[in-house]
Each structure stands twice: as C-alpha cells, then as structure tokens.
Description:
Blueprint: E1 34-37, E2 39-40, E3 43-44, E4 54-57, E5 67-69, E6 74-75, H1 78-84, E7 89-92, E8 107-108, E9 130-132, E10 137-139, E11 146-148, H2 170-173, E12 176-180, E13 190-196, H3 231-241, E14 244-252, H4 259-268, E15 272-277, H5 281-297, E16 300-310, E17 314-320, E18 324-325, E19 331-337, E20 342-348, E21 358-367, E22 373-382, E23 384-385, H6 388-393, H7 397-411, H8 417-438, H9 457-465, H10 484-496, H11 499-506, H12 519-526, E24 539-540, H13 547-563, E25 570-571, H14 579-584, H15 598-613
The structure holds zinc ion (ZN).
Amino acid sequence: MGTPPGAAGAGYFGAPAPAKRNDPRPALSPQLEMVFETRRGGDHSIPPPCSTPLVVRDKGSAGPHHMRSTLNLVPQTPALFRKLKLPFGLVINPMAAPGLRDDPIPTVDLGPGGPVRCAECKAYVNAYFRFVADGGRMVCNFCGAEQPVPPGYACPLDMEGRRRDAADRPELCCGSVDMVATAEYMAGGGRLHAFLATLPRRGRPASRPREVPRALADRDALDALHPDGAAWGELAARAAEAQVRPELYCLAAGPYMDVASLDAFARGAAGSLRFYPGFHAPADAARLQDDLRWALARPAGLEAVGRLRVSTGLSVGRCWGAFHRRTPTDLHFPAIDADQALAASIEVDEKAGGAGEAYAQFALLYTSPAGRRLVRVHTLALPITTGRSSAFRGADMDAVLALTARRVAAQAPGKALGACRDAVMAAAVDLLVAYRQHAAQQSDTSQLLLPEALQLLPLFSLGLSKNALFRRGVASWGWNDARLDERALWLHRLLTCPVEAMASIVYEASVFFGKAVPPATLEGLLGAHSLEALGPAPAPLPRLATPLSAAVNALLNEVCRQRGRLLRTRVLPAGVGGVDAFFSALVEDKAGSAGGSYADCLRQLHRAIVNKLS
Ligand SMILES: [Zn+2]
C-alpha cells in the first residue's frame, strides 16, 4: 500500500517527529480537526499544511482554502527577494467549497452606490483601509491614496482611530465577503457538458492521430501537447465570448483521442476536462455518475470576471489556470466552480510593505446560482520580513509545490522530456543552495540541509518529476510508455487543480494484492477462489457480506470522503493494461517507475548543491 499524505487525513505534523530523519516523509497518523483563525492578536496566522482538516475562522484575512501564499513572510526588498530564490505566488480558489463548520462568507449590500472602492487603484474596501480625519477620509492599503469617504459611508472613529462600526461591517472585519453589485456590472451565459468517446476527426476544428508509436526518449520534445492547430484556441475564445463553458468528459474507449487539443479548448474557455482511460462502462459508470452529480452540485458562479491586485512594491507576474483573457489584467470565466484554482506569481519590485504589511486581493464579479450579481472579494494580508531565515520559516510547502508544478507544466508543450524533469529538480537545487548560502545555521557540506518548512521538498520534487506528464519509458495502459492523452490530462490537472489536491497528485495512494494472496483473502474480498477465476476484463471491487470486504470498502469510502470525490476502484487481473499504472505510482521506488529511488534523489540533490557551492 502506498503512503497517502492527503488521503488518510494524515498530516506532516501528525506523528511525534522521529529523531531528525534525513529522508522526511509525510506522517501518517490521523489528524484532529483544527480551528484556524486567519489572524491572531492582529497578526497573520501561518496556515498548517493542506492535509490538516481545518475549521476556518475569518478574522480579517481570507482562509487558506481561498488563498494560500507560498510565502507567509514577504521579503521586504527586491535584493533580499532575489537572493533567497523562494518562489513567491498565490494559489487562489475563489469559489472553494466552504467546510461545514467554517465561517460562512457574508453578503453585504452597500446600497445604490455599490461596493466602496479606492478611486485610484480600484481596490475594494477591506479590513486594512485606514480611516482618518474624524472618519471623513480613507487611505487605501493597496496604493496608499488618501481620498474622501463616499457620502453615506462615513462613520466616526473611536479613541484608537478605528471606525466605530468596523465590527458590524463584514467588509471591514472579514477577509472574504460577497458584495452586491450594481446594475452597471450586469452581463449576459451557459455550460456545455460534452461526452466524447473517440478522436474528433470531423468538422472544424478536427484532430489527427499524432501519437508516436514508440516510447519517448529524454531528448524527444513534447510537441503533441500543443493543440492540433490554432482552431482549438479560437474555438475556446469564441465559446468564452459567448459565455459558454465547456465541461468535457473524455470516455476513451480507444487508445488516443487527442486530449491535448481538447484541453486547449477547455482551458481557454475556463472549462474542465475529465479523462477516463480505457473506459469500460461496468467498471466506470459509478464514477462517471458521481463526477456528473458533483459537476452539477458544486458551488459555482456564472459570467465571472476576476482580477488580482497587490499592494505597492509588488506586482503580479504570470497567471496559470483555466480562463479566457481579453485584457492583460482581467480573467474571464463563463462559469467558475469550486474545483478551479488559479495561481499567480508575484514579484517584489520595490520596497514592500509601506502600509505595514503586503496585501493581495482577488475580486471576482459573478452571478450566483440564485441570479444575484455579486463581487466576491478575498483579501490577504502578509507580514514583511527583513530576515533571511524567517522568510524560509514562513514558506508554505503545498503552495510552493503547486506553483512549481504549474510553472514547469506550462512549459512542457514543445519542451524535451528530460529537460522538463531537470527543471523540476533545478528549482529544488536553486532553492536549497540559496538556503545554505543565506539562511542555514550550519555550513557542513557533508549533509543535505532542508529548511524546516520545506522538509518534503525533495520527496515532492521526486514525485512531480515522476508524474506521467514528465515520465519516460514506463508502461501504462498496455503501452510501453505513458500515453500521450495521459500526459495531456496531467498537464490540465497540474495547471488547474486546487492546492489541496497537489500532495496526493505527486504522492498518490494505491492498493495492491500480489500473486501470493491467500485464497481466503481472495474469497472474502472478491468472491473468487483463485486469481484465474477473475476473468480477463477489469471489474469494479464488489461489496460482499464478508468482514474483509466490509473493511476494505469502508477504508476506500473514507479515502473518497477525504478527497471529496469518488475514486475509481478496479480489480485488474494480471496482464491487463493498468497494472503498470500501479507500479508507476511507486514514487519512492527505483523499480517500476523511471528515475531513481528517494535515496538516489537525495544523493543527487546533495551532489548538485555541493557542486554549485564549490
Ligand atoms: Zn488604492
């Protein structure tokens, strides 16, 4: 059985740390739910890892399900930022499904004038706006502009200079709010659920078979991950302009259906894509039904436009995700749901934190399922640091992994397979070299030194480099390499999945029963007396009235519950395509998956770091 970080609700801090391991792994003990206040005593709280179940209390900053920063302490100057080589960015899931006991997102109606905004930079009023001149003027925390408070919104200040009504106004005390939008924000739209089973050969755009019938070598470029012609991107733009969001279900009965082109269509129109390789109705119907049910039930907004703002000294760099872009700053979504995350890199261009902290705000104008036009505003305040080691202490492993995965995946189309894997490892090496040069307490080069907050960086980098998108020569679904469609699927997932899903993507859970399985186990679990009696086709795991069947099904149900979706369970008799997929998930092993073992990876990283230092 693999070791699932997210699946079993296990957390990195769950078990008492064994005496300083030099090959850190996620701990596997179950985690208790933790009440997480987004700020404590007026200060930013560092979110625990994604695997910790949280009840979020909004104390003025958005919760980590909505916005997670790779850095919880922002280097103050561009010089310090460049020196530390820490990736800075945000993973944003504006419509994330709230936990049952989380603080709900309040809705505020500021009247016919609509949401209060900075006249200069258009940031929305938030808990960090300062009010001065007896409450008659306000100072924006994003650009620093002082301006009169709009008529009807002014309020006297208390002895400490706070508005007397601040605690009663959600927009002044919460990190996440829905503001009622005025008529000028109105737009007009729909969702398209398309089920595909074969290569789309006819009409326009159409695809051709592009899969090379041989295993790829490291020097082979992933050209066929580009869409088959510009028409796919044009179709996406037309769909987005018409407010149509494609939600594609690729039920691949055959070997190839050009998921890369379908992904370009889906992603360019803020759509989604689900892929069922080797689709076999008896085994896959339950999962398809569950995926469809969730697609219709999950929290979603329609006709949405989003924009990310950051405070003075910072700037927004690249954005990754599924959206349509008409202007450089606005991201358009015919529809956006709880499974759709964006990521954006942030640069430190000038001295940051003039207004005390660094701020980020993602505002999403959308239509709610009830037909209301709202602006969802998520604001995150991050403290500034001048310290080198504190910047490393404030790093967030899940967000760093999500940002690295997006950056490397986005460059994969057209790039050589080996160069993609090298890019994953080079990112880890650069960061660890900078840590050693500027922040580590020791200077002993005989050891691999890992920052406390990034202990899992080598393991997750290894897992990412072994993802099917970058893998070489590993048999999969009856083929002698990762299928091209499989690579394209992972490109889609790595670019769009919520930060909570990342750890289980690069370090996934599988269950395997080998040939030596006792007949009684086989009987109790599968109702078959021998492996031969299983038949040649993959079949779903049966539910039998035996204690073993009940226990295994209960375990799998729990994994599904934790992941928030039905997972495909299949019984794969030996020799059937798909068994290889299991072996390829053995990230820590040398056998089965391309590349070395975890120990090899640690040695290789250490050697690369020492080389760079000398
Ligand atoms: Zn402003």
